[in-house]
Amino acid sequence: MTNLWKIAGRNLLRYKRRTLLTLSLIVFGVLFVAVFEAVTGSFKGMMIGQITDSFLGHMQIHRKGYLAAIESLPLTMNLKPQAVRKMERILKDVPEIEAWSPRIKFGGMFSNFVETTNIRINGVDPEKESRTVPLFFSRIVEGEKALHKGDILVPELLAKGLKVKVGDAVVVIATNRDGSVNGKQLRVGGILESVTGPGGRDGYLHMDDAMEILRMEEQEISEVALRLKDFGMLQEVHGRLSTLLGEEKNPQGQPVFDVNTWEKLSPFYNIASMIDIMTLFIKLMLIAIVLISIMNVMIMAVYERVREIGTMAAIGTLPRKILALFVLEGFSMGIVGAIIGSLLSSGAIYAIHAARISFDFGRQTGLILAPTMDPVALMTISGIVIGVSILASLQPALKAARMDPIEALGHV
Amino acid sequence: MELITGQDVSKVYHNGGVPIEALKGVSFSIEKEAFVSVVGPSGSGKTTLLNLIGCLDKPSGGRLLVAGTDVAGLGRTDAAIFRGSHIGFIFQSFNLIPVLTAYENVEYPLIMVQNVPAAQRRRQVQDLIAAVGMSDQQTKRPDQLSGGQKQRVAIARALVTHPQLVLADEPTANLDHDTAMGIIRLMKGIRKELQTTFVFSTHDVRIIDEAEGIYRIEDGLLKESHNQGGGHDHD
User: Looking at residue B194, what is its pLDDT?
Assistant: First the structure.
């Protein structure tokens, strides 16, 4: 086998310029795909992290049907205290869940005593909320990074529109589920920066204040945000929770709970999916580059070495060894290209990471691009290149192995 | 003792559906350790006969035994194995592998065909390279060697596996007279030393006299043979 490698290597060096050109194509392909995947992966991971850790959570639980009517934030579709208790018992038995935060969501009027506008309110338990969405308090751009009873965290846009600042007195008025209107004077505890997605215009109150405004005696929860210990377990835990909570039925025999991952809840998921599709197409382009360049080189190699192949066959070289020789040539180009491409990719990704390139996305500014080298992704790219190299050299190699020695020896 | 026996051997090629009889039922035998020349004009059937004996092609009719094996019945892989273990080839254009040195070209059949252990391989290759007088040129690649030197390497490559039979198709056609005579005498000398049978085709009258047996082919028929202990024909 060592000798086959030696002959294959020398054959590749026989046509240095052609081999170098093919190698450079493979290296460029690997470099491009690896850097693209690292950069888009970094962007995707950062955005998902921002969205899930700022307000959405990794998963959410609602009463079945609530999501379809979420635009009107219907209080009639909140989870009843009994259902919440059942749900919490189930959540406690799932060890992969790190924290959860119940929320009461409702629409209301926000007034600074001069002007009034509508607002989406989230009543939360500050401690549970910060454990479930740890970046929540970091969104407070003005004021103390906390949420006290009697305070309201106002979204940036609304604060600017109504010209309210930290410490100002405001009033929130809302209609409860029975149709009666109630209001409460609150202090602006902080200004929340905007985020991408549906949570960008939400204000936050303490859970007790929300219950007071809605005149709730017991908590009736609109949604429960969940945080997992390991984000990688998302689909598995979602499946398990869906099964466990799906067993809870209402008197009509319909499931009470609806469990959804962030993917169903955030429009960014469509962008993330688009990035995945683009990455797939880039990989397909890499396959095409490697396939065409190696196949081209190997077809030329076989055509130029017909007499040599005839000689090898005549002196008794078995067809499978001739096949192996040509496959090894293609494989060698693939593996060398993959190694050089991987090394250059690592360097390029490190350089981009070190450059700390900042960018804006939606309402978020100053995001830092921090691509990292994923060994699995790099191995996958290298594996594709090596696999395609073998595949591309197989047809020319088979042609060489099946060559009739007499015809080959007589080739001019 | 006969190494090759042909009985009514024929070969028909089809060129665009038109049958062409390259060999028309020739019978012959060649004894072990013979040094035989097959002569005749271009297109007479010399190369066809050598191809059949060398298991590179199959006869269309008749029976051909080489080293006791009916070569007509060998499949593609079996024929390759048979060639690798029984037959050495010397070509008109030397056909050395250009990326390998003289030494590596001689070593090639021992690695790729016979899988001989390294120490034994080194010994065999060195012996053969010395026998053909190429020890001082062994590290050179074919493009650094003269025609005569290339053919010496090719002879060493053909003999390194100790085959019973060496087939040489016009081995001196690309060489000047003196080099050609040198090559033929080298082949003849080594043949005695290694007890190998040599069958070579040529239409060079200057070297025919070196053969111990001569088969003359014309138009696919074995017209005559002159045997000086090399074999006999049955026509």
Answer: 83
Q: What is the mean pLDDT of residues B19-27?
A: 91
Beta bridge partners of A387: none
Interface test with A, best of B91, B105, B107, B112 (most A CBs within 10 A): B112
* Residue A18: closest CA among A360, A289, A302, A294: A294
Q: What is the DSSP string of A262-275?
A: HHHH-THHHHHHHH
Which structural domain range is residue B200 located in?
A: 2-233
Chain B CB within 8 Å of residue A312 CB: yes
Assess whether pLDDT exceeds 90 at residue B197: yes
User: What confidence score (pLDDT) does residue B66 get?
Assistant: 94
Q: Which DSSP category does A257 fall into?
A: E
pLDDT at A196 over 60: no
Q: To 10 degrees, the CA torsion angle through A287, A292, A293, A299? A: 140
Element (H, E) at A338: helix A319-355
User: Residue A319 is nearest to which of B80, B83, B158, comparing CB atoms?
Assistant: B80
CB-based contact B76 A319, cutoff 8 Å: yes
Q: Which of A127, A53, A38 is nearest to A364 (CA)?
A: A53
**Per-residue pLDDT at B235 exceeds 50:** no
Burial of A2 from C-beta contacts in 10 A (0-12 / 13-18 / 19+)? exposed
The total number of structural domains in chain B stands at 1
Residue of A nearest to B83 (CA): A316
Query: Is the CB of residue A152 less than 8 Å from the CB of residue A188?
Result: yes
Residue A159 banded pLDDT, cuts 50, 70, 90:
very high
At position A132, the amino acid (one-letter code) is: T
- CATH code, B156: 3.40.50.300
Burial A277-294 (b: 16+ CB within 10 A, else e): eebeebbeebbebbeebb
The H-assigned helical ranges of A266-305 are 268-304
What is the CB neighbour count within 10 angstroms for residue A374?
17
Q: Tell me the pLDDT tens digit for each residue of B50-78.
A: 999 999 999 999 999 999 999 988 998 99
pLDDT digits (tens, 9 = 90+) for A14-47: 888 999 999 999 999 999 999 999 998 888 888 8
Q: What are the boundaries of each domain within chain A?
A: 2-51+270-409, 65-255
Size of interface A-B (CB pairs under 8 A): 67
Tell me what percent of the residues of chain B surpass a pLDDT of 90: 51
